[in-house]
């Protein structure tokens, strides 16, 4: 996990100046909102923790299996998210999208398997 240890701080250092420039006074707005509602601090810390755990999981999956497994899991995650969305929101347009999505993913997977 040395790669994650070295990569995460570097990514933060590279992105922080761009974020402050593009977002403007986001730090003062966040502090102001945190004073009004301390729950936002909990949400920000929780969001950061989940993002770190997602990165850690991706590195662990790649380390113990392969990059292809990570790609297949990502495709499965997208398909499950679309299916759950259909079940919750009953969106008929999304049902046709899921069919096209899964057909495209199968085609992409077949082409990757024949390449390597």
Automatic annotation (TrEMBL):
Coiled coil: none
Transmembrane annotation, as ranges: 6-27, 39-61, 67-89
GO CC annotation terms, alphabetical: membrane
Keywords, alphabetical: Membrane, Transmembrane, Transmembrane helix
InterPro entries in the record: Sugar_P_trans_dom (IPR004853), TPT_transporter (IPR050186)
Positions of the Sugar phosphate transporter domain: 1-92
Pfam families on file: TPT (PF03151)
Localization per record: Membrane
Membrane topology note: Multi-pass membrane protein
Official protein name in the record: Sugar phosphate transporter domain-containing protein
Organism this protein belongs to: Populus alba x Populus x berolinensis
């Amino acid at each position: 996990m040395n790669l994650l240890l070295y990569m995460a701080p570097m990514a933060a250092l590279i992105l922080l100046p761009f974020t402050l420039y593009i977002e403007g006074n986001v730090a003062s707005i966040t502090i102001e909102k945190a004073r009004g509602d301390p729950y936002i601090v909990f949400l920000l810390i929780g969001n950061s923790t989940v993002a770190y755990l997602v990165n850690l999981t991706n590195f662990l999956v790649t380390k113990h299996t392969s990059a292809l497994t990570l790609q297949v899991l990502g495709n499965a995650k997208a398909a499950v998210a679309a299916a759950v969305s259909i079940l919750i929101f009953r969106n008929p347009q999304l049902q046709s999208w899921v069919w096209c999505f899964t057909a495209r993913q199968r085609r992409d997977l077949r082409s990757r398997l024949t390449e390597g």
